[in-house]
Amino acid sequence: MVKFTVEDHEGTRKEIEAPDDMGLSLMEILKAYEYPILATCGGMALCATCHVEVLEGEDELGTASDAELDQLENLPEYFPTSRLACQVRISSILEGAIIKLRGEDN
């Protein structure tokens, strides 16, 4: 299991725990914890409604793919540490990270 912190749209932070051996995406975990993630495209990096900002731990995630960057760069709010939650796999690299929700909510 890996533990990381999620900051919601209101600024409330909560530590959550996720299995790191099932190949799940950050988007899937956020939806499982009932965060308001639209994920309109179902995790295909086509809509950017699962936009998050990595406040801590971004160095371990590596760089975003070209498809992910294409979506992020079209957002009204885009940060150097922005990522699409559907493109971030749950693994030990997320241990201790702080993730801020940025995408549209329901």
TrEMBL record:
The species this protein belongs to is Aquiflexum balticum DSM 16537
Listed cofactors: [2Fe-2S] cluster
User: Does the UniProt entry include the keyword Transcription?
Assistant: no
Give the family this protein belongs to, as stated in its UniProt record.
Belongs to the adrenodoxin/putidaredoxin family.
Please list the GO terms describing molecular function: 2 iron, 2 sulfur cluster binding; electron transfer activity; metal ion binding
Note the PANTHER family from the entry.
Answer: FERREDOXIN-2, MITOCHONDRIAL, FERREDOXIN/ADRENODOXIN
Keyword hit for Disulfide bond: no
**2Fe-2S ferredoxin-type domain: which residues?**
1-105
Q: What is this protein called?
A: Ferredoxin, 2Fe-2S
